[in-house]
Specification:
alpha/beta; 352 residues; 5 strands; single chain; 8% strand; Rossmann fold; 5-stranded parallel sheet
């Protein structure tokens, strides 16, 4: 792999961009690269706008179910990725109330240290403690993303002296969703990266990142994960890979979401049929999986177009409507149910 070769030769660029779709291994690789470059947990910071709750719940439930070393390591790795977003380097930009949560994150880290020596009889109680500890952090991190305040914190941290001499790595995910002020602040750092510091950007939509930033990074594209790789990963976790079509469905189902209901409902709406509204809405409000439902609906509309059941004109119109309305709803923090009603009834009206 090209990335491994560059690291081995000591030629890994100080600023890179990992692009690709969700669940293509970008964040996992970014953390592995940080390790290979000599960064520790303490010298790696993550800024991200992703919702980590699904992955964490999946890891907790898998460990509770399997109770083996593979599940234990998977849980530890998943939670640590999340806790790197509560690095002390980001404290200055936080409100007084949120700063207390950074201490709570430290408590979570202390709990993780108990994992290697846990006895099987203690696992349920441990999971309950860790779950409650993590739930204290979710309201703080959700939706914060990449802010200009955090970028300024990073600049100050990167310029500071490293007492242990460790390499510093900054992983930034979702810059395309941040404001111009955040991009401009980051650009100033990327123009002259501090010594022994690496920046790894992660993006689903690199085309929405300013060209001035893109010109400062070397890009690596991650292809969608194929079935063989998916099977390899799930088998290593002692999971029946044939039960899941991809990694996303594994994480969502293992987290406790009724993904089959979402699939069925999206298929029905794409064919102009009303789904089981009470059950569907209840599940969406319980889990917050609104975007998952929209992605499934978009896929089903694409399938109908490919089979000739839906005209290109209608399909293109609906895809644009769904994209525009969900994007606006996210930008203006619109009530999810209003967006859902618009998307479903507009789709039913067009494809019926």
């Amino acid at each position: 792999m090209q990335i491994e070769k560059l690291i081995g030769e000591g030629n890994f660029p100080s600023c890179v961009l990992f692009s690709g779709s969700r669940y293509s291994g970008r964040m996992y690789t970014a953390n592995k690269v940080a390790d290979a470059l000599g960064s520790t947990f303490e010298s790696t910071v993550i800024l991200s706008d992703r919702d980590n709750v699904t992955q964490i719940n999946a890891a907790l439930n898998l460990f509770e179910k399997n109770r083996n070393r593979a599940a234990s390591m998977f849980l530890e790795r998943t939670v640590k990725v999340y806790l790197k977003q509560f690095h002390g380097a980001l404290m200055d930009s936080q409100s007084a109330a949120n700063k207390k949560k950074f201490s709570d994150a430290g408590d979570c880290m202390d709990l993780l240290s108990e994992l290697p020596s846990l006895e099987e009889k203690d696992i349920p109680k441990f999971i309950e403690r860790l779950r409650k500890s993590l739930e204290k952090l979710y309201p703080v991190s959700k939706g914060q993303g990449v802010t200009v305040g955090k970028i300024r914190d990073i600049k100050k941290w990167c310029s500071g002296y490293s007492a242990d001499g460790k390499t510093k790595t900054v992983i930034i995910e979702g810059l395309e969703n941040a404001g111009d002020s955040s991009s401009n602040a980051l650009l100033k750092i990327l123009e002259e990266p501090p010594k022994d510091t690496y920046f790894i950007l992660i993006s689903q939509n690199p085309g929405r990142i300013g060209q001035t930033v893109l010109s400062r990074v070397r890009q690596f594209h991650f292809s969608d994960m194929d079935t063989a790789k998916k099977n390899e990963i799930l088998t290593s976790l002692f999971v029946n890979a044939s039960q899941y079509e991809d990694l996303e469905s594994f994480f969502i189902t293992m987290s406790g979401v009724d993904d089959k209901l979402l699939h069925t409902s999206a298929l029905e709406v794409s064919h102009g049929k009303e789904p089981q509204f009470p059950a569907l809405i209840k599940e969406l409000e319980r889990t917050g999986m609104w975007s998952r439902f929209y992605s499934l609906l978009v896929r089903e509309l694409g399938n109908r177009l490919a089979s000739g059941e839906l005209s290109e004109r209608k399909c293109r119109y609906l895809l644009e409507e769904i994209e525009n309305h969900t994007s606006r709803a996210a930008s203006f923090n619109q009530v999810p149910r209003l967006t859902f009603d618009f998307v479903v009834f507009r789709t039913l009206g067009v494809v019926h």
